[in-house]
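Reference record
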Amino acid sequence: MPQYQPYSQIIQLLPVSRMNRYIHDGDNPDITEERKKATFDVDGFTEWYHGGEKRLQARREVEKYIEDHKELQDTHPTPFMSREELIDNSVRKVAGMAKYHEMIDMTNIEKTTYFIQMVHVRDGQAFSLHYLMFLPVLQSQASSEQLSKWMPPAISGTIIGTYAQTEMGHGTNISKLETTATYDPKTQEFVLNTPTVSGAKWWPGSLGKFCNHAIVVANLWTNGRCEGPHPFIVQLRDMDTHKTLPNLKSGDIGPKLGLNGSDNGYLLFDQFRIPRENMLMRHSKVLPDGTYVKPPHSKLAYSGMVFVRSMMVRDIANHLANAVTIATRYSCVRRQGELVPGAGEVKILDYQTQQYRIFPFMAKVIAFRIAGEELQEISKQLKKGEASQLPDIHALSSGLKALVTFEVQRGIEQCRLACGGHGYSHASGIPELLAFSCGSCTYEGDNLVLLLQVAKYLMKVAASESPSTNGICGYLHKKSQSNVSTLSSHKTYSDHQIVQDFEHATRRVVLQAFNKLKTESAMYKSHEAWNRCSVELTKAAKWHIRLYIVRILLLEVSQAPEDIRPVLRTLAKLYIFDLQVSNKGNFMDNRYMTPQQIDELKNGVWEALATIRTDAVSIVDAFAIHEIELKSVLGRRDGNVYPALMEWTKHSHLNKKDVPDAFDKYLKPIMEKIRAKM
């Protein structure tokens, strides 16, 4: 396991005006050299990045707590563990969390989530969905009476919950879920049933062996009518023996690409009865006589989903921050090739190609984190019942989840490639990050399906007969202030000009998709026309989300503390200019931008790379990712990579014996037989 020094030992005041306090005696001189070049206050950046002093202090408390409690840490690197060992390790740490339950504070969901993430990192754990889905959905969907009944035992740990929506045969299309909950007014119970094997609940974490309750999403039937999917809280196991209850079948679904410390499971119902009160009734309800009461707003049930996705966007951006940290630090201690013949090998981060592989994703860490933070603030307003903009916000949360998870997965792979052969080793920490990010592109909604949901909303707004120029979609009905971009130099490219150019490009993409759909709809049935336009529709959705990210990024950077604003501005420019250059066709469409203007943006990209190069290590230091979370030999703070790689090999079971048993069992007899014939 990579060794780490407690944060309290790392922080040292240095006699320089612009300091990076990650410098420590015994560090690799190459990485110390990088830190001494910092042009900004790293601590100030860290405080801004993590949302202020109070929130940062909460993170530090969690880190110090885990440093001081070894039972909350892995005994040895998890890549060397079997699946059974991973699950045992996970449950051991869960038991440790229960012992130190003072760190679990559901009134501070951010601190609690960080505590869980720091304990379990990316291995998956038996109770992850209890905290990340079960409790938040219970809070957002249960009535006050239900909260008073279910929340105390759920917080105390008596109830271990999961969220069971996905089925073997259905995922994102929840209206077609096969699990049914049919109301019986005679007994005032719901009867849950799984009609076919494809209707089995499939994938929920901890469903296999460890949870005893689940929030189950099933299609509600009452008075002979289907009212669509609704959430129900269901007890699955005996609270004393932990045995599965009668009329239920559940188990583990087997090993996966990642998260193998979690017992993702399956669940089938056979006419299983639950009380009427087990339907979560904050927004809709079924009365004792079977009468269905609709929610006051048809989309209010989405508020919990918006909250979960807001956390997901911010957290998945943090996984990209991990990968960028690893690739950047390693690129400053890895020397390969010469830029000047005979001058000696250079740090691979000195190559522009390496910078272009890593730095745009460094900029995306900032952009995506800001977008996630803003979405989280919006979700808090939804909790207060402010639903007027819910359709806008639901589309935004769907689109952000889709775009960010896809870009993060792509970015982590680029960081793996940036680390060369060592990036393929689990010692780098990147394969685990990559496996985790792959899953995020599917769970909580398949990305393409979510983009089509965004597109559906955009088409509705575009067709509106009473359009508004306000709100997130207001740009669609604005008239262009100019038929051409006024960009003359990337150095003087104002925020207003940038937003105006992105609005123009986005509006054209969305309206082109709208007009194509209109044309196809005149020739084909609506569903066929939609399918024939689906690629263009997903492009429109992506541009809508990109525009939102650009807007919020520029706004937040303009309001950042003055001493860190220059480095943030450079990162924002790199994100924006690279986006424009990589999608130049959308900006040059209808001659809105000229080839010369695109070339000017390219110059802005190259200049940003060179500027960021000076501060690259200090920027990733400012992300303040603890060594326990980073789990990387290549990305370790001290830069002493090569001795640590050799140390890593000591954990391999194959190295316990000089001659492996398989040699004696299979190869030796063959070799002896061959030699006997010679």
Q: What stands out?
A: The chain is about 50% helix and 10% strand. Residues 392 and 611 are 37 Å apart (CA to CA). The domain at 136-293 is CATH 2.40.110.10 (Butyryl-CoA Dehydrogenase, subunit A; domain 2).
